[in-house]
Amino acid sequence: MADPEHVALVRSGTEAVNAFAAESRKASLDLTGADLQGIDLRDTNLKGARLRGADLRDADLRNTTLNSADLRECDLRGADLRAANMHRTTLAGADLRGAKLDAIGVGNQRMCIAPATFQDARWEREELERILEMINLNPDWQVRYDIVPRDNLNTPPNASD
User: Fold this and answer.
1) What is the mean pLDDT of residues 37-45?
2) d(CA 63, CA 35)
3) Can you give the pTM of this predicted structure?
4) Domain 1-151 grouped into CATH 3.30.70.1170
5) Which helix (H) or strand (E) is 80 found in, with range?
6) 33: alpha, beta or left, given left = phi > 0 and alpha = psi -120 to 50?
7) φ, ψ for residue 131 (rounded to 5)?
8) Domain coordinates in residue numbering, the chain
9) Which residues pair with 65 in a beta bridge?
10) pLDDT per residue as tens digits for the range 81-124
């Protein structure tokens, strides 16, 4: 569970969190499972924060430093993550449907991608299409894909005919 003092610190605002981050370089915030729905954390240093299972729906995380943060199983639906720095961030099992992201690698947004980074993460179809379009910028290879809901994987083509 989240440290109540850390939750209170985050609720007090960006300046307080950034002061904490500057003073305690090795300590990270424990916000595990915290209800932070709709919170404004723009420009906040949450490097290494433990946010596993936190509710960050509709949170404003623009330009937030989330390097090495644990966002596994977070509810990030509708969160604004544009220009967020997510180097070595873990998003496995996170719900990212409707989250606003810059194109990966554009502006300040940086993200290391490993097989476990997005394991079981949930995305909107449009975001998946955008990611695949970026991959197709590779001059040597073209990725051809068909995005279908998992419910339809066992349905034969033209089964509705």
Assistant:
1) 97
2) 21
3) 0.73
4) no
5) none
6) left
7) -65, -45
8) 1-151
9) 45, 85
10) 988 988 888 888 899 888 888 765 555 555 556 566 667 777 78
